[in-house]
């Protein structure tokens, strides 16, 4: 005779297992196929970085010169530097752009995979544990996608993301639970 309590816990364990492994599979597959930009690729680190003391030398090295707005000399009469150089300005800007693009693309991939998992869950109507695991796995993928990309998205895009996710959930829910 089947123990109803044991089978309930067993079903819950299988559902949670599918949810976790599905999302690990999604994320590691994305990282394998589409590696994250690395800072050192954009801004190679050197053991002894050069010093840029003039605006011309700084800008020639793709840096950003920042003019000293403070006093022209120190209290002991020593002249203060005219400014300072941020030599990583251009490479860091390029890295930030690549990181933002990467975050957007991973977001899109995770949303597509999450919605696909929700859709595929309908095919497993005769196996409710699998259907539930895929459904919850799809929902978790949507949550992970939004959490990863949320800080990169502008407010209008955040509202659009929420509207699309809500519409997808309502549509799938209405079709599944008529």
Polypeptide structure, described:
The chain is mainly α and 178 residues long. It has 2 domains: 4-43 and 88-176, no CATH class; 44-87, no CATH class. Helices cover 66% and strands 4% of the residues. The chain contains 6 helices and 2 strands; from the N terminus they run H-H-H-E-E-H-H-H. The chain has helices at 4-33, 39-42, 55-60, 89-121, 128-149, 155-176, and strands at 64-67, 83-86. A two-stranded antiparallel sheet has the order 1-2. Helix 1 (4-33) packs across helix 5 (128-149) and helix 4 (89-121) packs antiparallel against helix 5. The chain is elongated and about 85 Å long. The two termini are 33 Å apart. The model has no long low-confidence stretch (mean pLDDT 87).
Kindly list the characteristics that best describe this protein.
two-stranded antiparallel sheet, 178 residues, 6 helices, mainly alpha
Compile the SSE list and pairings.
Layout: H1 4-33, H2 39-42, H3 55-60, E1 64-67, E2 83-86, H4 89-121, H5 128-149, H6 155-176
Antiparallel strand pairs: 1-2
Helix pairs in contact: 1-5, 4-5
Roughly what fraction of the amino acids lie in strands?
Answer: under 5%
- Oligomer designation: single chain
Q: Can you count the beta strands?
A: 2
Secondary-structure class: mainly alpha
Please give the count of helices. Answer: 6
Helix content: 55-70%
Distance between the termini: 33 Å
Overall body shape: elongated
Characterize this entry briefly:
The chain has 178 residues and is mainly alpha-helical.
């Amino acid at each position: 005779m089947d123990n109803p309590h044991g089978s309930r816990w067993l079903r819950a364990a299988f559902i949670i297992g599918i949810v976790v492994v599905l999302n690990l599979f999604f994320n590691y597959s994305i990282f394998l196929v589409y590696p994250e930009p690395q800072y050192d690729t954009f801004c190679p680190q050197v053991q002894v970085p050069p010093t840029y003391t003039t605006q011309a030398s700084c800008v020639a090295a793709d840096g950003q010169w920042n003019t000293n707005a403070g006093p022209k000399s120190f209290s002991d009469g020593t002249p203060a530097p005219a400014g300072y150089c941020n030599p990583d300005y251009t490479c860091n800007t390029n890295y930030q752009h690549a990181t933002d693009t990467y975050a957007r693309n991973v977001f899109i991939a995770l949303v597509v995979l999450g919605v696909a998992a929700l859709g595929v869950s309908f095919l497993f109507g005769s196996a409710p544990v699998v259907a539930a695991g895929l459904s919850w796995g799809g929902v978790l993928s949507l949550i992970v996608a939004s959490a990863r990309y949320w800080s990169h998205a502008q407010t209008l895009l955040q509202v659009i993301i929420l509207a699309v996710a809500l519409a997808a959930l309502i549509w799938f829910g209405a079709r599944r639970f008529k």
